[in-house]
Each structure stands twice: as structure tokens, then as C-alpha cells.
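=== RUN LOG ===
request id: a7f3
mode: sequence -> structure
chains: 1
length: 267
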Amino acid sequence: MTELEAVLKDLTTDGDQIDRLVAGLDAEQWNLPTPAPGWTIRHQIAHLAFIFRLAATAATDAEAFKALTAGAQSNFDGAVNAALKDYENDTPEVLLARWRAERETVVKGLAAVPAGEVVPWLVNPLPPIVLACAGIMEQFAHGQDIADALGVELERTDRLKHLVVFAILTRDFGYLARGLTPPATEFRFEITGPSGEVWAFGPEDGEQRVSGPATDFCLLVTRRRHRADLAVTATGAEADHWLDIAQAYRGPAGAGRTPGQFATAGR
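=== RESULT ===
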């Protein structure tokens, strides 16, 4: 199995877990509010369906992708909200079927990209494996919102390593979203996976250091928990500041979560 195949397999497994959360919900439950202001469970699945549709189009039809993302650069929030309208009249059954189809299509599309080639994306072209990791990030974030709305816990495994790597690659997004200049200093990351394995990145003697459990780290970089409720720690002023602004996605940071918002937060 190639590295890309492994990531796509984990992307599928993560999606299946969210699928099991929502497949048995009734129409009223699909309209339950999630911690994301103004977003219901329906909105979360619609967003995932759109993101996967976008990624599948990027992998298979560059010109169609360009047309689909026209306007996103100048008005990111507007583009996202406009995309959600395409799903607003779907019944839960139709919406779930659309998301399942998009998940299957994106896996096939990314797997078929010739080795060494990149696919277009919102800012810069990306290798298919990085886009697959972005999909894992999206499913983690929006799946967590759904789990929070339902009051359930999701299983977290060493599949999180893909999101950890992606968050480190996109370390500067939090600065850019706020109009700040990212520091030139390379950080040292020491993140412990659910299995107990430590994933280390960056210079061993780095003065700016971030460490903690992978689940907490991923909740931090997707802004699904406040840093005060997580066991992620920093050494050095720059690393400490990064914990306040970390985000593994482009666009506005959003309000994030407040300290103590979730009684079960922190591990």
C-alpha cells in the first residue's frame, strides 16, 4: 500500500464513523444545533459534501474546479454559504446519499492522479496526499461538531497522525488569517498518539516547542476546544502565542470555543 493509499483508507474510515453517527437520526435530529453558531447537523454534513465535491472536481477536472471556486478568493465566507444553499432543500436521506457519493468520488479521483502531479486548490496547487489530509482535517472538525451536538464521543486512533502532520505543514495559517507575519523560527512538535507513540517533528534542540496528546492537539488546531481545556503545552513565547491562534484551515478563524464550554474537554 502506498502512502497515498493509506491516507485515503483512513479518510474513508473516518468518514464511515461520522456516517454511523448520522445515518439513524430522524429529521428533527438533523436540525439539532451544533457548537458552530448557526450550523445544524444538516449544515455540517452539507459542508462536508461540498468540500468533498470540490476536492473531487479538483482531482478530475481543473477547469470545472476553477468555475466552481470563482469568487472564493475575494469572499470566502460568502462562497461557503452560497455552496450550502445547494443542499438546503435536500431531505436527510438525499443529503446523506450525496455526501456518501462525494466521499467515494474523491477517493477514486485522488487515487487516480498520476504520481508526481498536483491538483488545483483554493490558494496553491497541492499534492493529492496533502488534499486527502485536508479532508481528514475537515471530517475531524465537523465530525466533532456533530458528536458534540449529540453528546457522544468519537473513537480517536493513530489515524490522527495525518491531521497532526497537516497542522504542522499549515502552521502559519493562524498568523495569515489575522494579518500577522509568521515567525521564521521552526517549532519542535512532540505529539503523543492514542497508541502512546510519540510523533516528533522539527529541530530536536528547538527553543519553541509544542507538546501534548494528539486528540487535544487536533481539537486545538481545528478550534473545536479552547486551549485552556486541553493538555497541549508550549515552551517559548512564540510557541505559546501560536496555541492562541492555531488553525489548520484557510480563511477566517471563527469565534472558536470558550474555556469550559465542554465538560468532557481535556484529557
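=== NOTES ===
The CA atoms of residues 74 and 161 lie 32 Å apart.
The chain is about 50% helix and 5% strand.
=== END ===
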